[in-house]
Amino acid sequence: MLRQLKWLTLLSLDAPLVAVAWQALYAQAIDNKLAWHYRLLIFASVWLGYVADRWFDNRANRQLDSERHRFNARHARRALAVWLIVLASSIALAILKLSPLQLANGFALVAASLLYTAFAQRCRSIAYYGIAKSMLVAGLLAASVALFPELSQATRPQNLAALSLLALLFSLNCFILRSWEKPSSLTAKLVTPTFALTLLLAAIVSIFWSHFQILCAAAIISSIALRLLHRSKPRLEENLARTLADVSLLTPFPILLLTWQSQSQVGV
How far apart are CA 64 and CA 58, in angstroms? Predict the structure, then answer.
């Protein structure tokens, strides 16, 4: 059963699911109900970015040292066809459903994603590349979470604190994955302090802003799961470990399910 989870990684579905999960929990925390198209657009946007990044990796004729890259290389034409369909559908849906302000924010995030892709492909030789790439990915994911919910309130201190917590959590995930590829890198040394900072910020946010307590609890559970997985990595198969690292970030889903069930019971 666990080995079947690798398809989440092979099909680049893990990161989009993570973005949608935390977007939903964040929206619930600020009491904002998201329409279905917001969730779909975020999912599609993150998926498009990840597939494009892997496609460029393969086009650069680098050594295909991971199963996910080899899978994308074998199915490059099919992936490109699906990618173009998803891109066209997302643009059409965004034009039909989003306000001008939301479209502007969306295009800003797309521009940031394109800049990240250019950086990831062209700046591999610079110092601290791994750290910069990990932090950029984490920042983009955190920005995607807050792209639609309460845009006018995005600069409130409590919202910025909650989004900073998510950026730290996503950074922890990226640092751990990077440390598995290069155990002796500086990125590996950042795992422990990032884990501690995530727990500390989660505690601070939950104390000062009670409406974020569930989100903070989910962040704590995810960070502990990542830390335990990091310690267990030597005993796990490579692809399974990578998939479980992303599954560790899906804690909002069971929490949201329990919340929706309790609300439906109250409604009855």
Answer: 7
Query: Domain boundaries in the chain?
Result: 2-267
Confidence label for 268 from pLDDT (cuts 50, 70 and 90): very low
Q: ∠ at Cα 215 (179, 21), nearest 5°?
A: 70
Contact 68, 10 (CB under 8 A): yes
Q: How far is CA 18 from CA 39, 102, 104, 153, 240, in A?
A: 11, 21, 23, 23, 17
For the record, the structure tokens of 139 come out as 């920042």
Distance, in Å, from the CA atom of 88 to the CA atom of 96, rounded to the nearest integer, reads 12
C-alpha 141/C-alpha 49 separation (Å) is 11
Q: How many CA atoms lie within 13 A of 188 on its CB side?
A: 9
pLDDT in tens, 2-12: 567 777 888 88
Which residue in the block uniquely carries the two structure tokens 């006018």? 152
pTM comes to 0.89
| DSSP code of residue 156 | S
Residues 90-123 have pLDDT tens digits of 999 999 988 888 888 888 888 888 888 888 878 8
